[in-house]
Please model this.
Amino acid sequence: MDAVAVEVSPPGGIEPDTLALPFSTDDSGLPSNGARQLDGGFEARLRRLADGGELKGELGKTVVLHADEDSSVRRVVIAGVGKRAELDADAMRTAASAVVRRVADVGGTLAWLLDESLPLSLEEQARAIVEGTMLGSYSPGRWKTEGQPEKPVEKIVLWAADAGGLEEKARQVAVVGRWVNTARDLANSPPNELTPETLAERATELAGANLKVDVLDPGQIDELGMGALAAVGRASSNGPRLIVLRYDPPHATRTDLVLGLVGKAITFDAGGISLKPALKMQDMKGDMAGGAAVIAATAAVAELQLPVQIVTVVAAAENLVSGDSFRPGDILRAANGKTIEITNTDAEGRLVLADALWYARREGATHLLDLATLTGAMELALGDFYAGLFANDEDWLQEILDAAKASGDHTWPFPLHPRYRRYVDSTFADLKNSSDLRQGSPVLAAEFLREFAGEGPWAHIDMAGPGFLERSRGDYLTQRGGTGYGVRLIVELCNRLA
Ligand code: BES
Ligand code: MN
Ligand code: ZN
Model:
């Protein structure tokens, strides 16, 4: 779904192609409040379905009903939302996703009856419905030659007695939802199409007039002494790029704060000389999901004109194998002057981030947040739902945790501790890029990054799990591939910083 119009109107205000009604398991056997407001014989039909056990209100289940010819609402989807007591924003997103997938053959205008009796505020319902609809209807099959047969939902109408500020909020959510799906498109793009160079071109297009864009080519990367980024990108004929976006709002609320967003954008991670196994290597096209998220989020913040100054730095490279590859045993010098012994060329994310973090500080970032699909062990630990969060500052950690929780991009705190530093002590250089002990890999990666994050608050999100899905998550993210993880989190963070 590209763009979708969002409106708020009193129930019955328009004649939608479909009306969605939330229905919880606790409603079973009773006609829902919503049905009572409808003509067309819905109430009796609902009662029969409930009595017959065909309508239970289970989360993500839908039942479609058609009305008599003369009814103002012709089609109703009863959207299961599960147990009332367990209803949260994720459940509502899941219900909205199930509904939009159910009406894929119909499209047009989809109305949702907001329900004051649910334990979510009307605003939370509105947000979750718009998000669930937009994220749930995303299709990753853009490269299929047969066009998509589905009819898109063009307009979401939220039926609420009292619109009070709801429409503006819901429209903002629709803007963010569009950028989340843009980040997914980037992550799903095949690595033959999306190289560091073409990612930089895409970022420039997406930035439009709202952002200033600078793209540093391999020559400029070398000149600045970014030996880590340069080494990772060297084996590929698609050379590395440092993509820099700047957003300067006319009236920043906090003049003392420049948010530095840093993203890992390995457009394909073969592992280099420390080659990965073949199984699922194709998913390593998604190793630029952190970079995609910070690009899309910056564009979203600019489109919404949030009053937060941002500098976004994306380290883009392709980690391949060739006669010019960097090697285990090489010692690199990063832009901040530290020397790094390479012990595994597949631990490339921390290398490119090292130089990008340094650059973001150089450009004046006071508060850093980096997003990266950094370690397989993070996915082993937390699966596809939570990302891991590390920070060198308690307040900054809490700020990000709060934003994450409110946004739906779930994040769980992990520790940093100087006692982990010995794992990446090197005999020859200042530090090494991986430990050969199979222990604490996400923490060691974060400890490594800390050395390049400079002075001031810094946080790191390892989104290896939720950034790129191997299969449906069973909620509103039902598609394999990129999820746009991080876009909603960053926009929410900026709303809170403003
Ligand atoms: N991009 C990978 C991490 C990854 C793996 C993300 C699976 C998503 C799914 C990263 O560059 C990597 O290869 N990390 C290594 C580090 C190790 C060599 C220290 C890993 O986690 O195995
Ligand atoms: Mn790797
Ligand atoms: Zn990687």
